[in-house]
Each structure stands twice: as structure tokens, then as C-alpha cells.
Amino acid sequence: MGRGVATLSHATGVVYDDISWMGLIQRAVCEKCSEPYYEDETTECCDIPLVFAEYYNEDHQDWDWYVEGITDKFTTKYPSLTTTDSWDGNEVHIILENDLCEIAISDYCSLCSISIRPKENEYGHTGLADRFCRYVDIWMNEHISTLNRVGGFSDGTSCYEKKT
């Protein structure tokens, strides 16, 4: 069975972002002296041209910066949102909440999902929570989403297209 990026259970809004740029660095190693060079430092060493290739940066700092940037965008637009650190299952990290909603982030391969769901109280969803989530979903589609989900297969795999 295939799989895709996870989202909040009972999410009323989901957007997708391409994070394929994350964690990749350009690096070259001189064949003679084994000195490492990074992009934009130089183009040759020991009188031979350097050949740069992409390597995965394993310190996960890019992901932390990305989540921090997403959090800043939301809290600037919606000051009532506060940071939180909880989980919806094993793969969906709830990063923001207020009295009306929860906002979560998840990644898989080079795809990120950001989803929102209204909070329930003892009476169920309130109309205010549902309306707030719809407004935030519209904003997420305009300011965060770079991909549209165009469909899925029976094995769970999904297809996406870049937004124009």
C-alpha cells in the first residue's frame, strides 16, 4: 500500500507545500587535497575545477526554521493563536491553537501538509469555530500553499500540481 503526507483527523482545511529544497546543500571535495568547498566559495582547487553535487544536510535545522517561519506567519496574522506541542497520532504535529482551532504540520518525503480543524467543546463545534477555520483555510491557500492536490489512487498515493 502506498502512502501520502498525513493531516489532522477531522481537518476542515488542508494546504500542501513543496519542501524539496530543504536539507540539500551544494558541496564539492577536491580530488587532490580532499578539502571540502561549499557553493559560492570557489570553483577550483589545486588547479583543477571542482565538481559540485547535492548532499543532504542531516542536522534538520532547515525543518526547524521552516516550522518557525510558518508559526510566525500564522501568529502575525492571527494573534490569538499560541504555540503548542502536541500530536494527533504519530505523524501530525499540532503547533498552534486557540479557543477555536488547532493547526498542525506534517511532512513526508518532500511534501508538507498544514491542516486546521475546529476545536470541540462539550456541545460539539461552534459556528464561530467553523467560520474561523474557513477564514484561516482561505488565508492558508493564498499565502502558504504552493501545491494543489489533484487526486489520489486507491493505494493511498496522491498527485499534486504546482499552483500557478
Strand content: 35-45%
Overall pLDDT level: 84
Q: Give the tally of structural domains.
A: 2
Q: What is the strand arrangement across the widest sheet?
A: 1-10-9-8-7
Q: What's the helical proportion of residues? A: 10-25%
Class by helix and strand content?
alpha+beta
Report the principal-axis shape: elongated
Gyration radius, to the nearest Å?
A: 20 Å
- Give the CA-CA distance, first to last residue: 31 Å
Low-confidence stretches: none
Largest sheet: 5 strands, antiparallel
Number of strands: 12
Keywords:
alpha+beta, 12 strands, single chain, 3-stranded antiparallel sheet, 164 residues, elongated, 5-stranded antiparallel sheet
Please provide a written account of the structure.
The structure is a single chain. With about 160 residues, the protein is an alpha+beta fold. It folds into 2 domains: about 15-20 and about 60-160; about 25-55, no CATH class. The protein has 2 helices and 12 strands; from the N terminus they run ββββββαββββαββ. The strands form 4 sheets. A 5-stranded antiparallel sheet has the order 1-10-9-8-7, with helices on one face. The longest helix has 17 residues, at about 60-75.
